[in-house]
Amino acid sequence: MLTILQKEFNAFLNSPVAYVVLGVFLIATGLFVWVFPDSSVLDYGYADLQTLFNLAPWIFLFLIPALTMRTFAEEKKAGTIELLLTRPLTDGQIIGGKYLACLLLALLALVPTLLYYYSVYKLGSPEGNIDSAATVGSYLGLALLAAVFAAIGILASALTRDQIIAFLVAVVGCFLVYSGFDSLASVLQGSSAYYVSQLGIAAHYRDLSKGLVDSRDLVYFFSVVAIALQATRLALRSRNW
Prior knowledge:
Structural class: mainly alpha
Radius of gyration: 19 Å
Largest sheet: none
Distance between the termini: 25 Å
Order of helices and strands: HHHHHHHHHHHHH
Number of helices: 13
C-alpha cells in the first residue's frame, strides 16, 4: 500500500493538477480572508478565521474530486487496471494507497493556511485574542471533511473509465452528503428534521468548528469513509461477476 501511495503521490507532484489545485485553493481562500471587503478579516472586526472555515468546504467540493477523478478512471481508460490488479496486492491495498495519496495532497493544501492563524493571532487586540480551541476543531473538521470527499471521489472514479464523468459524479455525491440532508431537513418539522440533518456532514462539521470534539462526530466521519471505500472495493470486485 505504501508503494502505491508513493507512486500516486509522485504522479500528482509530476503533473500540473496538484499545483493547480493547491494554487486555486490558496488564492481563493486568500482573497476571501484578506482582500474582499465583505469577508476580509481585516474589516470584520473579530479575530477569527470563520471565513476560511465557511468557504473551504465549498472549494474542497470541487477540488478534491479533481484530484480523485484520475485514480481508477485513468487506469481503466489506459488499460493498465488489469496489470495493476494482477500484481501481488489486495484490492484494499490498492484502494488504500490511492486514497491516502489523494487525502495527503488535500491536507497539504491546508498547511499554508496555518499562516492565516498566525497572522490573526498576532494582529488580535490583545495579541492572541483568538479562539484557538475552535480553530483546532475547525481544522480537524476540514481534515475529516477532506477524508470523506476523497473517499467519495475514489468511489466515483472506480465506477467509470471517463475522468469527467468521475469528476461530476463525485461533485454531486459530495454535495448531497455535505448539504443535501441539511436542505431536506429545512423542509421538515420536529425531531425528524434534526435526525435527517445528522445524516449529513454539515451538522457534524459545524459542531467541530465550535471546538466541540465529540466521539459521535468522529464515528460519523470514519463510518462514511469506511462505507465509501468498501463500496469502491465492491466496484472493483464487480470485474469478476
